[in-house]
Specification:
alpha/beta, 6-stranded mixed sheet, 8 helices
Length: 263
């Protein structure tokens, strides 16, 4: 039986490899599988890291990325294979890689991706170059069904500091104006939000929704952004609405973080 000949929705992740398994493509695969979907994956960069820090990386070329994705798409689309139902992107370190990702989503029979605009690791290591960031902002956002920046990422994309809930809403509008269908601003990095962790979604018709959870004091958690975006993609693959996909994925990640807190 060929891998994509199954009754599970196929979710494609295009992201970096974290050998520790806490973030990146390994976290994506684990999450996608946990939701009963079939994960397919293409690696953009092999990083050298553990849960505490990133020591370096070896980036893929556009050619090697395309060589990973095209056979997956061919298998999904040919001979009765299961079509790719949803997709997400993570670490896209170079302008060459970002441009190739954009071309793949524009040329191939792929669903619009959930874009997790990974910029800096939890430990503070830069994961995207300046030129790559500009290409992501200018060319990748317009092909995204959803963009999921945290506060520092949203500040860089919008061009201003985010200090309040009003700022989060304004940033979401600005980022959506760059071409993304919808934007989810993740508020976990807001130091003012001591009681609640607030995320704000603006959907494809400009309607805002707030998602509030009691803040769980466990410090920095490695890989939560990857897990959230992968969970959203998995729910979208199972034909949930964007609102429901975000709400259920948020609950899943919150429960995972809560499980880390000592009883």
């Amino acid at each position: 039986m060929r891998a994509l000949d199954n009754d599970k929705p196929v979710v494609l992740t295009i992201a970096g490899l974290d050998p520790s398994g806490g973030a990146g493509i390994v976290a994506d695969i684990k999450t996608i599988a946990a939701f009963g979907c079939f994960p397919a994956a293409a690696i953009t960069s092999i990083t050298f890291q553990n849960a505490q820090r990133v020591l370096g990386a070896e980036h893929q070329s556009a050619a090697t990325l395309r060589a990973q994705v095209e056979p997956i798409v061919a298998d999904a689309n040919g001979n009765g294979g299961t079509k790719i139902a949803a997709a997400k992107t993570g670490m896209l370190p170079t302008a060459e890689i970002v441009r190739e990702v954009v071309r793949l989503f524009r040329e191939d029979d792929l669903p619009a991706p959930v874009v997790d605009p990974v910029m800096v690791s939890t430990s503070g290591h830069d994961l995207i170059g300046d030129e790559a960031f500009e290409v992501l902002k200018r060319e990748l956002l317009p092909v995204a069904c959803l963009v999921t920046p945290n506060i520092p990422e949203a500040e860089r994309l919008s061009g201003f500091a985010i200090r309040s809930e009003y700022d989060m809403r304004l940033a979401a509008e600005v980022i959506r104006s760059l071409g993304a269908s919808a934007v989810l601003i993740k508020g976990g990095h807001r130091s003012e939000s001591l009681a609640d962790a607030l995320d704000i979604l603006i959907d494809d018709v400009g309607v805002f929704t707030e998602f509030r959870h009691t803040r769980i004091d466990v410090g920095e958690v490695h890989g939560t952004g990857c897990t959230l975006s992968a969970a959203i993609a998995a729910y979208l693959a199972k034909n949930y609405s964007l609102f429901d996909a975000v709400a259920l994925a948020k609950t899943y990640v919150t429960d995972q973080i809560r499980s880390l807190r000592p009883v």
